[in-house]
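Dock flavin-adenine dinucleotide; give full complex structure.
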Amino acid sequence: MAQQTFVIVGASLAGAKAAETLRAEGFDGRVVLIGAEAERPYERPPLSKDYLRGEADAKPYVHDEGFYAEHDIELRTSTTVERIDAASSEVLLSGGETLGFERLLIATGAEPRRISLPGGDLDGVLTLRAMEDSEAIRARIDAGGRLVTIGAGWIGAEVAASARQRGCDVTILELAQLPLERVLGPELGAVYRDIHTEHSVQFIGGAAIEAIEGDGRVAAVRLAGDRRIEADFVVVGVGVEPRIALARAAGIETENGILVDERLQTSAPGIFAAGDVANARHPFYGTRIRVEHWANALNQGPAAARNMLGRAEPYDRIPYFFSDQYDVGMEYAGYAAAWDEVVFRGDAQSREFIAFWLEDGRVVAGMNVGVWDVSEHIQALVRARRPIDRRRLADPGVPLEDVLAESRSAS
Ligand SMILES: Cc1cc2nc3c(=O)[nH]c(=O)nc-3n(C[C@H](O)[C@H](O)[C@H](O)COP(=O)(O)OP(=O)(O)OC[C@H]3O[C@@H](n4cnc5c(N)ncnc54)[C@H](O)[C@@H]3O)c2cc1C
């Protein structure tokens, strides 16, 4: 039989881990990993943390330089897939080359949402997604001065923390009343606001931004009521959009990402999607979810690769992510679309605690802050979907395994 070709579009974490897995699983056909960026695949979390602060020893690559050649993975950097022809199973590359495939993985990720504000294109208004964005922001941080972040989601909050740690004056502007409120709710949003204000960051919630002002380069951000916040540079972190244009043009079904089934297969036979771009049917939740986090790319890429090889493996991991701001590290596991109660285990002021989001007495998500090696237990509680004893859940003296075991015997 002629050699098969598996093509992966998007040479970042999901794509690189998929390529690695194809070889680890014994696939001996052609593996072509195509990435628009000049860099070989790298991890993005350090770009708002130690790499941004200039504290990393090296660039955060996914694999050593020699890895791709050693595993006979054809890595094409600085190459864009311009079109997918699902009917003829071909991709068209920038430069005009056409490549046929037996299986295709789309791992095109996501890109920062733009804001349309007067002055949004001034010099010094920046976004963060790629390594070069991080380097550009680092250069501004090194020059010192006043940073305004627009948006207090994970990226805005982490950039604010890193810039503050490097001595910049920082103001965070957020439309909601509190940072991270959409995901964490008001109780935990308040904890993160306090963490920032304790580090002398100015947090302005409910901020209605009217314009970014400056003559060629940014000088200030103007809020409703004629309030001006002076700025030497601005980082806009108002969320990301999945990169779906390629798939949509190929007639592949999209809606808040590329729609895939439990096995990460798109509406086009032989074509899969994984990572930030995939809106995947999740067997545990019984609905589609799109997860924009590192662990999802790390694990979904390999799962897609195994399914490309016909393994029929549903992807059912509980969503997980982490964030580091100043000396406060956290992990979050679960997926809380709605909740009716937040239970704290430990004192939030001490920055060593676990918060649980409950719906109908069941844990739907948990976040450990400054407490480690508990995420697996939190995920087990989420998976159990059983009513738990809140008092015992809140008691740091009761091991989480016991809380889970008791819920089992009570049901
Ligand atoms: C600054 C930053 C900090 C983060 N911190 C955390 C964190 O602390 N914790 C956490 O859980 N998550 C974090 N994340 C999120 C995490 O990095 C992403 O979830 C992860 O990168 C998604 O990987 P991906 O491979 O799906 O897509 P991406 O990393 O977005 O990569 C997609 C790749 O596809 C390429 N591409 C797109 N279209 C084409 C095309 N047509 N042809 C060729 N190539 C194409 C792009 O150039 C890009 O390189 C962070 C993200 C950023 C940006």
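Observed: Residues 9-15, 34-37, 44-45, 47-48, 80-81, 107-110, 128-129, 155, 243, 246, 275-276, 292-295, 297, 321-323 surround flavin-adenine dinucleotide (CB under 6 Å).
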